[in-house]
UniProtKB/TrEMBL annotation:
Belongs to the ExbB/TolQ family. Pfam families: MotA_ExbB (PF01618). Keywords: Cell cycle, Cell division, Cell inner membrane, Cell membrane, Membrane, Transmembrane, Transmembrane helix. This is Tol-Pal system protein TolQ. Its main location: membrane. The chain crosses the membrane at residues 20-47, 136-159, 179-201. It is a multi-pass membrane protein. Residues 110-216 form the MotA/TolQ/ExbB proton channel domain. It is found in: Cell inner membrane; Cell membrane. One of its GO terms (cellular component) is plasma membrane.
Length: 238
């Protein structure tokens, strides 16, 4: 039997996803497993952040409605001081604590209170933004690195496939195709991990920017309210 008849008599290769993974080189398998784990972790971050932003928006909407409803600042502070949560409520409580420390202490230091409140507002906003932005860098890293990691697995698999072809001295497509398909599977998994990570990162970063802008606008408005009250109390303190 000549080589062509032997190849024709061979059973058709199995190109299922499991077969492509199982017959791949150990290095390519390690690349695939690493990319799949990274993809699962990316989806966990995406789901967690989506739910977090939804809760933050709802809490901010509720707090803003309460804040502008005409309720006194003292009552609002008493309602939130024990459990301010996050977002606008945390910003409000942080500023009110600085306000009350200045007026309830023995020194009654009012002259620089506006600057201290602005500093407290800036620090609290930065802390809230860091909380919203945490772990998003991982999405960016996977989005940029996963295709190259998959390409590394593909290059390694193709090198191994050509080595096997040279050893078998048979260049038939039936012999070449399985090894090439196994190698290209690594790039496919890399793209599978990278594309959702990039799209989610861009969307979530835009949401962080919107939340930050909203908190900064509220902080400016609240700072103006407190500044007016400070100006009213300065003659009394003098």
């Amino acid at each position: 039997m000549n080589p062509a008849d032997a190849v024709a008599a061979m059973p058709p290769p199995d190109f299922s996803l499991w077969a492509l993974f199982w017959h791949a080189h150990i290095v390519v398998k390690a690349v695939m497993i690493g990319l799949l784990v990274a993809s699962v972790w990316c989806w966990a971050i995406i789901i967690d952040k989506t739910l977090l932003f939804r809760r933050t928006r709802a809490a901010s909407d509720q707090f803003e409605d309460t804040f502008w409803s005409g309720q006194s600042l003292e009552e609002l502070y008493r309602d939130h001081q024990e459990n301010p949560g996050s977002g606008m409520a945390a910003i409000f409580v942080a500023a009110m604590r600085e306000w009350k420390r200045s007026f309830e202490g023995s020194g009654r230091q009012i002259a620089s209170l506006a600057q201290r409140i602005d500093k407290v507002l800036d620090v609290t906003i930065q802390r809230e933004v860091e909380r919203l932005d945490s772990r998003l860098l991982f999405l960016a890293s996977i989005g940029s690195a996963a295709p190259y990691i998959g390409l590394f697995g593909t290059v390694w698999g193709i090198m191994n496939a050509f080595t096997s072809i040279a050893a078998s001295k048979n260049t038939s497509l039936a012999v070449v195709a399985p090894g090439i398909a196994e190698a290209l599977f690594a790039t496919a998994i890399g793209l599978f991990a990278a594309i959702p990570a990039v799209l989610a990162y861009n969307k979530l970063q835009a949401e962080v920017a919107r939340q930050q802008s909203r908190m900064e606008a509220f902080a400016d408005e609240f700072s103006a309210i407190l500044s007016r009250q400070i100006d009213e109390r300065l003659p009394l303190a003098a």
